[in-house]
Amino acid sequence: MPPSRKRARRYDPARTRSAVLAQFAHVRGAVRTLTPEQLALPTRLGDWTVRELAVHLTMGLLHLTRNLELPPPAAAGPDLELLDWPSSTADRAAPIADGTRELAAATPDLDALYEEVTGRFEELVPDVPDDRLLSVPAGTMRLADFLVTRTVELVVHTDDLNEATGLDVPYDRQALAACTRLLADALAEKAPGGAVEVRVPPFAVVQCVQGPRHTRGTPPNVVETDPLTWIGLATGRTRWARALDAAKVSASGERADLEALLPLMG
Question: Could you tell me the residue range of the domain that residue 216 belongs to?
Answer without folding.
Answer: 191-261
